[in-house]
Amino acid sequence: EAQVTQNPRYLITVTGKKLTVTCSQNMNHEYMSWYRQDPGLGLRQIYYSMNVEVTDKGDVPEGYKVSRKEKRNFPLILESPSPNQTSLYFCASSLSRGRVAIGTNQPDEQFFGPGTRLTVL
Amino acid sequence: GENVEQHPSTLSVQEGDSAVIKCTYSDSASNYFPWYKQELGKRPQLIIDIRSNVGEKKDQRIAVTLNKTAKHFSLHITETQPEDSAVYFCAVYALNFGKGTSLLVTP
Questions:
Q1: How far apart are CA A95 and CA A84, in angstroms?
Q2: What is the pLDDT of residue B30?
Q3: Confidence of residue A99 (pLDDT cuts 50, 70, 90)
Q4: Closest CA to A68 of A117, A35, A96, A30
């Protein structure tokens, strides 16, 4: 089954304690990204990766790190979490970031993981 | 980056009525516009998308229209049902999302 998985699904931690949220996809997608979702602010992109060893900042990268050593995995790292990073996090993957040829009818859906609800005390 | 504005932020309709959600974007070169539906406690999922080489696309009760000149695109849901209640996000490419519209369909 084609899917994106995230772990853990729920996490309560304390300020300053390093944590990693894992993300894995089995669809051989090149493009992966991380979003945080907060009430009234929608989905905001944290980091994205176009391919292995290629990562770039999204709109809200401060306080986060990522790595893309393998095509299927894209972990999100919070070196020193703070309360303002309390949020719902989604990992997502897609074929090509929506930039498929205009003449095709191939969908370029972003597949989202189930989400990780993080609370930083 | 691309600036995506979505309106309204909340929308309440009666079952059977139509619902329309509108998004505007800033980059005239953009050519892919997906819509996602997020039910409470679940992940966003694609419901329909449109590319800039067409002006309208329909899938049963949902449709999307695109006005490239005005740089806006809209989601239309006809004959709404309570199970349509969710948050809807527009996006440009698979990147920039609107802030979402919370749709409530009341019986």
A1: 32
A2: 85
A3: low
A4: A30
Distance from C-alpha of A115 to C-alpha of A112, rounded to nearest angstrom: 8
* Mean pLDDT estimate for chain A: 91
Q: Please tell me the predicted confidence (pLDDT) of residue B95.
A: 75
pLDDT in tens, B23-40: 999 988 888 899 999 999
Smallest Cβ–Cβ distance between B94 and the set A40, A97, A114 belongs to: A97
Residues 6+ apart with CB under 8 A from A68: A32, A49, A51, A52, A53, A54, A55, A74
Best of A32, A108, A116, A117 to substitute, by most chain B Cβ atoms within 10 angstroms, is: A108
Burial of B82 (0-12, 13-18, 19+ CB in 10 A): exposed
Instruction: Summarize the confidence of residues A9-15 as an average pLDDT.
Output: 97
Of the candidates B80, B81, B77, B88, the residue with the CA atom closest to the CA atom of residue B33 = B88
Burial class (CB in 10 A: 0-12, 13-18, 19+), A11: middle
B94 vs A42, A110, A113: nearest CB: A110
Q: Which helix (H) or strand (E) holds B7?
A: strand B5-7
Q: How confident is the model at residue A27 (pLDDT cuts 50, 70, 90)?
A: very high
Sign of CA dihedral B79, A112, A89, B63: negative
What DSSP string runs through B13-45? Answer: EETTS-EEEEEE-S-TT--EEEEEEE-TTS--E
